[in-house]
Amino acid sequence: MCSGGFAKCLGITLLPLSILCVLCNILLFFPGGHVVESDQITKQVWFFGGILGSGVLMIFPALVFLGLKNNDCCGCCGNESCGRRFAMLSSILFAAVGVLGAGYSVVVSGVAINQGPSCEVHNSNSTANATEWRHPFENGNYLSNKTLWDACLQPKNVVPWHLTLFSMLLIMGLIQMALCAVQVINGLLGALCGDCCGCCGGSDGAV
Prior knowledge:
Elements lengths: L2 H25 L21 H20 L13 H34 L3 E4 L8 E4 L23 H36 L5 H4 L5
Antiparallel strand pairs: 1-2
Helix pairs in contact: 1-2, 1-4, 2-3, 2-4, 3-4
């Protein structure tokens, strides 16, 4: 497969992943599927890791990777593949942007998973049956002790909602980083070795 064709496969994979990341981040604004006040939303949601990092910043390299296939073996034989080699080199820069964007999303998701969601809990400093909104978990202690989830009174099912969506962002971010890293290697090979897959030799009268 030409390096441009392989890059297209990467782009086809990155696009739906970026869309899913955006959707996950949007859903996190509705903890447990409920509408809450803006200051009651987990603060890491406002860092827009899925929308900006694995979403918007990932769309640009995905579109670039998709466009690399369009020039495969077309017009590259007459100019010694200079245009194609430059395109493959430029794709490395976009791949680096993708790695940074996905890496940002991974870091935000990791911190959010470790900290846990913001939710309504009993106020331990009050003698009355008062409640407050805060992050009741520390250092990921709720991950291995599911009984701690009962500390969150509202919204219902906020812990599995938070954990599932941020875990999805974390996993998809890691996949995006891996795919962009693969394109860095693919782009280097395409720039150094060319990307015509022997089509020049197979064309009539081509040298």
